[in-house]
Inverse folding.
């Protein structure tokens, strides 16, 4: 049942002057809540749901229009991501309808990191550490301070730096 609800929220957001098409999905995800309408944890078979049980949680259409922070994502970020996933030039063209200079994109030092709310980690060659950088934009009140909250799966240690994000009004 989530699909028609989220589709309606996304369609409404397309008319918002503050949100561009690339920011709609991340703002829906970042403003979702991990509690139900009564303020209690979302349940899965009468147990508190885990991240993989509930995804990002219950969408909140009112908060989505005023997310505060937003992951700054652009169409080129998706193209770079497709290149990093080793899609061919013709596959990328069939998705984007753009001719991509594949070799130039692959030389960019952005790693395998789509500037997106969720992370996917593949550990190869015994490497156990991964570092991700995320680009955020304050679309909320000027002079805002946000605390970083991480919900890591069991057995995974996540260190977020900094733990507080401060934004000042620009002139």
């Amino acid at each position: 049942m989530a699909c028609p609800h989220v589709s309606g929220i996304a369609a409404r957001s397309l008319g918002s002057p503050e949100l561009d098409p690339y920011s709609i999905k991340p703002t829906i995800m970042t403003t979702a809540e991990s509690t139900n309408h009564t303020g209690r944890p979302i349940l899965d078979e009468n147990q508190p749901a885990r991240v993989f049980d509930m995804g990002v949680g219950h969408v909140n259409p009112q908060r989505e229009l005023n997310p505060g922070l937003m992951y700054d994502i652009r169409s080129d970020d998706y193209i770079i991501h497709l290149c990093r996933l080793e899609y061919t030039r013709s596959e990328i063209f069939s998705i984007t309808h753009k001719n991509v200079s594949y070799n130039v994109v692959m030389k960019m030092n952005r790693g395998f990191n789509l500037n997106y709310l969720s992370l996917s980690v593949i550990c190869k060659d015994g490497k156990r550490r991964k570092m991700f950088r995320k680009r955020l934009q304050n679309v909320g009140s000027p002079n805002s301070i946000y605390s970083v909250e991480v919900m890591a799966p069991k057995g995974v240690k996540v260190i977020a730096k900094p733990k507080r994000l401060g934004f000042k009004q620009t002139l």
Q: What stands out?
A: The beta strands are 43-44, 47-48, 69-71, 136-138, 145-147, 164-166. The CA atoms of residues 72 and 136 lie 5 Å apart. Residues 75-107 form one domain. The radius of gyration is 18 Å.
